[in-house]
Design a protein that fits this description.
The complex is a heterodimer of chains A (about 290) and B (about 220). Chain A is of the alpha/beta class. Chain A has helices at about 15-25, 40-45, 65-75, 110-120, 135-145, 155-165, 200-205, 225-230, 265-290; strands at about 5-10, 30-35, 50-55, 55-60, 60, 80-85, 100-105, 170-175, 180-190, 195, 210-215, 235-245, 250-255. In chain A, the strands form three sheets. In chain A, strands 10-9-8-13-12-11 form a six-stranded antiparallel sheet. Chain B has one domain: Rossmann fold (3-Layer(aba) Sandwich). In chain B, a hairpin with a 2-residue loop joins strand 9 and strand 10 (about 195-200). In chain B, helix 3 (about 100-120) packs parallel to helix 5. Classes of the chains: A alpha/beta (about 290), B alpha/beta (about 220). Chains A and B meet through strand 7 and helix 4 of A and helix 3, helix 5 and helix 6 of B.
Chain lengths: ~290, ~220
């Protein structure tokens, strides 16, 4: 099988059902971790998980508790409810949960479950944010840039330091947008390492070839409810996308501040120049690395 | 009933070329007028149909669907009703009761989808009319993105057809723009003197210029 082995957590308090479901998933080529309670699911979430298949009743909670634990740890991990509980018996989950569902009552239910899990693990399918059209190619493009290996950190640190004084802002950073989170490869003014994609404004910046400006996060319906931005004191934002030579969006070069603010056209042109510099550095360093090999 | 590798969804009496299976279309247009009828017409054909209705009740939606030539609710035609209408539609109509319960809507939708699938209908057309109440009832847009991504990837991987409507006037452009990202193409609808015009962005071989829809006169 050419596909990378995806890990599925299979949670069911009933041993017979759990083992039958795990066997069906294993036969389909998944790496399966079993769990019999909400607690054991939580323990299993420490590793890489691509999908969680959960029954409804557990001695220490229910299927929605499982989903809540998953969303807490891996916000965009696919969750599939697989239960014989009739729909009317299910208490309603929180609106933020949204899961896939396969009733155990349909004929060949485990085959259908495998189909749904295969669909759900082929790409990020339960993301709480918009995804670029060419996400698969974009992600392989991002993986091709190992910033540590390219020794670009010091250069980027200098650029972000220049940006904070140039724009008179709290924080400037270079962020690469990975599959599940944004990774800050250089950051002046704060000590940020990563941010979940659903909380990151750059998630939206990589979708547009124009500079992205959020003058006041509290006034923008896409970000007004994102508590994490408040925790990071991000009240205003300006970002310019960085791409590779094929046009794949890798991430963004950005300014943030704890006060609402606007950016003039001239400032955005400068931001674009900083982003062009980062793009060129990445490209040149990668070429240099390839020539050395 | 099984789909072949090169299977497509065809649209009768509409100026649209067939689209590949797994396609998700966003229909944007004014709340009233031609948008709703266009959405219902896109669901016509011999395939199974699951409609999520949030703006108009299941009863009203189904009666319009039948008037346009669609089948009555049954093995092949299902509805998830998210309005507060308490009409009893039987097993083929699920009532969720509020557009705020995205988890409930998603589960009822998947349940109806699985039911038609289990009866051998591989080709399923999904209609959502409209996304607007879902966005209005949710303070945070992120759960709505999650809902749309979950439904559209089910449609993509199950070789279905998805048609979702949204009233662009009811939301900020930047929100509609982000929502549109989850779809393969956008069908814009506008009221014209003699009826309704549409144009398509995002798919080749479809009308890019405003084109009259004679069926919607």
């Amino acid at each position: 099988m050419s596909r990378e082995l995806s890990t599925v957590v299979c949670a069911d308090a009933d041993e017979e059902h759990r083992s039958a479901t795990a066997t069906a998933l294993e036969s389909a080529g998944f790496d399966v971790v079993t769990a019999s309670s909400v607690d054991t699911v939580e323990a299993a979430l420490g590793g890489d998980v691509d999908c969680v298949v959960t029954a409804f009743r557990f001695p220490d909670g229910d299927g929605f508790d499982v989903v809540a634990a998953v969303r807490d740890r891996h916000p965009d991990c696919a969750c599939v409810l697989f239960t014989s509980q009739s729909l009317s018996e299910l208490p309603r989950g929180g609106r933020e949960q949204v899961v896939e569902y396969v009733p155990r009552s349909v004929p060949d239910a485990r085959d259908r479950l495998v189909d749904v899990v295969e669909g759900a693990t082929a790409e990020v399918t339960q993301a709480a944010y918009p995804l670029p059209e060419n996400e698969t190619e974009r992600l392989s493009a991002v993986r091709a840039y190992d910033v540590a290996e390219l020794s670009a950190e010091a250069t980027f640190d200098r650029l972000t330091a220049l940006m904070t004084t140039h724009f008179d802002i709290d924080v400037a950073f270079v962020g690469l947008v990975d599959e599940h989170e944004e990774r800050f490869v250089a950051c002046t003014g704060a000590n940020w390492r990563t941010l979940a994609r659903e909380d990151s404004i750059c998630t939206h910046t990589i979708l547009t070839d124009e500079e992205m400006v959020v003058e006041d996060t509290h006034e923008d319906p896409r970000f007004a409810e994102v508590d994490r931005l408040d925790e990071l004191h991000i009240r205003s934002y300006a970002g310019a996308r960085i791409t590779d030579s094929e046009g794949n969006a890798l991430g963004a070069v950005c300014c943030t501040d704890d006060e609402p603010r606007s950016y003039t056209r001239a400032e955005l042109d400068d931001l674009r120049r900083f982003a062009d510099e980062v793009e060129e550095q990445l490209l040149l360093r990668r070429r240099l690395g390839e020539e050395r090999e | 009933m099984s789909l072949q590798g090169d299977a497509v969804y065809e649209f009768e009496n509409l100026p649209l070329e067939p689209v590949e299976t797994g396609t998700n279309l966003l229909v944007t247009g004014p709340a009233l007028g031609g948008t709703r009828e266009l959405l219902l017409r896109l669901l016509l054909g011999g395939d199974a149909v699951v409609i999520i209705t949030a703006d108009t009740s299941a009863r009203e939606t189904l009666s319009d669907f039948e008037r346009l030539g669609g089948s009555a609710p049954g093995e092949r035609v299902r509805v998830v009703d998210c309005t507060q209408d308490d009409g009893d539609g039987g097993e083929f109509v699920s009532a969720v009761g509020t557009p705020a319960d995205l988890t409930g809507i998603g589960i009822e939708y998947a349940g109806q989808y699985e039911s038609v699938y289990a009866r051998g209908y591989d080709a399923v057309r999904t209609g959502i009319y409209t996304l607007t109440p879902l966005l209005v009832y949710s303070d945070d847009v992120r759960p709505v993105f999650r809902f749309i991504n979950t439904v559209s990837s089910r449609i993509r991987t199950a070789d279905g057809l998805g048609v979702c409507a949204i009233d662009p006037e009811a939301h900020e452009d930047r929100v509609v723009g982000s929502i549109a990202q989850s779809f393969d193409a956008r069908i814009e609808v506008r009221d014209a003197d003699a009826g309704v015009d549409i144009r398509v962005r995002g798919l080749p071989d479809q009308p890019r210029e405003w084109t009259a829809v004679p069926a919607l006169r």
